[in-house]
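Protein in question quoted in full.
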Amino acid sequence: MICFPNAKINLGLHVTEKRADGFHNIETVFYPVGWNDALEVIEAKSPEPEFNLHVSGLPVTGNTTDNLLYKAFTLIRQIKPLPAMDVYLHKVLPMGAGLGGGSSDAAFFINLVNEQFDLNFPEEERLQIARQLGSDCAFFIKNKPVLATQKGDVFEEINLNLAHLFIAIIYPNVHSNTKEAYSLVKPQRPSHSLPDILTQPVSTWKHELVNDFEKSIFSVYPVVEKTKNDLYDLGALYACMSGSGSAVFGLFEHRPVIETSFPHWIGKLT
């Protein structure tokens, strides 16, 4: 069985406070976009190894045991039996981009094996498994626009439809380290809530919809700020860095023409 894990963007991101457990509370809106990896799971003919990961496309660094797909496999196997499997991941989404590619792969894996092997996990149980893997992993179980709070894993439905807009995402070949990004941000309470801002016309977001990571990431990686400015020069209604970076997206009324050597994707929002 094959599926196509998609990216997400963050519409606004407020880092509101440091938690006692060392994490941060945030407020953001996750919105799915159609830039995809490809993921296939096949039951292995041999019981050894139990989990065999095959990667194509962009390179994936680290050991298999550190990969979120293997960690998801391990968590599921603690609850219900799983057969040995060959997992084929074709990696398209860049890592360290703030697009949630690794988290999406893991969440889609959970949904995929749940269906493929008739595990019958309800959504809430799949969410609980995903929350153990990463703060934004649970979003991809739902994979629809949500207001996310606390560590980014507590969700509230939000009525937001951007299907009339095009999106361009550019990855300026900068790997942004999430831990480093958080260390450079001073938590603070926002003056306006995201739901209030998002009810306004998109053309007003430029001056009000803020990603708290931008200031520090721009100071370390000027090319990220330049990429955002380039999108505005191309006519974006709104442009912003996604998550802790470094990918930058622009929202357009009409399909833009992007001339860049950086990895990028253009499509229609849904």
Q: What stands out?
A: Helices lie at 68-77, 101-116, 123-131, 139-142, 178-183, 194-198, 214-220, 222-233.
